[in-house]
Amino acid sequence: MLPVRCSILSRIIRWLPMKPKTTATEDAHQLAEAVLAGERRALAKALSLLESTRADDLPLQQQLLQLFYPRSGNSWRIGITGAPGAGKSTFIEALGTEAASAGRRIAVLSIDPAGAQSGGSILGDKLRMPTLANHPNAFIRPSSNRGSGSALSLRLRECIIACEAAGYDTIIVETVGAGQSDTAIAEVTDMVILAMLPNAGDEVQGIKRGVIELADLLVVTKCDLDPDAANRAATQLRNALMLIPRRFPDWSPVVIPVSSVHGDGIPHVWKLCTQFFSPSRAETIEPNRRQQRLLWLDRAVLEYVYAATREHTNRSTQMLELRSAVESGRLPPPIAAAELFALSIASKG
After folding, report:
1. Is residue 9 part of a domain?
2. Deepest in the core among 40, 88, 273, 288, taking most CB within 10 A?
3. Helices marked H in the chain — which ranges?
């Protein structure tokens, strides 16, 4: 009886109405409409697609970006950086809750480091912000830097665009905590806030070149644990800032001791954020955005050139020969790279 049942079942399935296949353009429009309508699940799905590194997702990524882009650019973009253990997540929860309570719609893009061996990431920042995560005006998205070595994720700019299109007017980006050496946060945000511990050698860090030169606001965290140390660190930082040129001619960096747990200093920080993004400073912020767009173009060109080169050379015998020559020490990597690029260009022609 089994063959007969299977035959009947196959006939029934054949007559059932099948859902028509949709194109990438149709899928993108449906998803974009849901994101623009403020659906959180749709935004989460869109961010996952934009962060994807699969070649099959590229057409959908480009369609989504094309649809989101005209609805973006009107948010306050704030970057939070600092050394590991400086209390960035707790500070973001306190600041984000303050902003959300003031009526702002907050999207937090938190970057976690990926393991060098496994490439995995814990993505635990959302768990460290329970109050903000449950606020109706807030959306938190943890992401991985995918082992890129940067304090930011590879598709962070696209994610910012999507969040802005979804109606979030304040974007907070948290870096992995790479410390003084990473300045990429200033390439994607308008305002940079540097979180520092009271006893972290601030007087030396203030003189070094690095992210402190790009900080528009410096917060000495955990001031409730040792108020005297926090005040000393704040004084040292203020003195150090006198030796550093301003990033913007109309803005002087401010140093504030804060306690994210007790809320000390948080209202003052938010007040300074509102002053930084006041309409009178639009003529300063917009030129910075223009430079960021051009820098994004440069990054995108390099990425597409790299992808196109790998697409061709991974299938070629020349690639294997050049890799062998580099591995054995017979050929310098830059020369091999130039030859691979030339081979890729020749194949396109």
Report:
1. no
2. 88
3. 2-15, 24-36, 40-51, 58-68, 88-101, 130-133, 156-165, 202-205, 227-241, 266-276, 282-313, 317-328, 333-348
Q: Kind and range of the H or E element at 195?
A: strand 191-196
CA distances from 87 to 102, 129, 181 (A): 23, 12, 18
pLDDT confidence of residue 138: 96
- Give yes or no: residues 183 and 250 share one domain: yes
SS3 77: strand
pLDDT tens column, 233-247: 899 889 888 888 889
Same domain, 214 and 168: yes
Distance separating the N- and C-terminal Cα atoms of the chain: 62
The count of C-alpha atoms lying within 13 angstroms of the C-alpha of 211, restricted to the half-sphere facing its C-beta, is 27
Q: Are residues 218 and 85 in the same domain?
A: yes
In a domain, 158, yes or no: yes
Q: How many domains does the chain have?
A: 3
Q: Which structural domain range is residue 159 located in? A: 73-277
Tell me which H or E stretch contains 78. strand 76-82
Which of 131-135, 145-149, 198-202 has the highest average model confidence (pLDDT)?
131-135
Read off the pLDDT of residues 289-302 as tens digits, 9 standing for 90 and up.
999 999 999 988 88
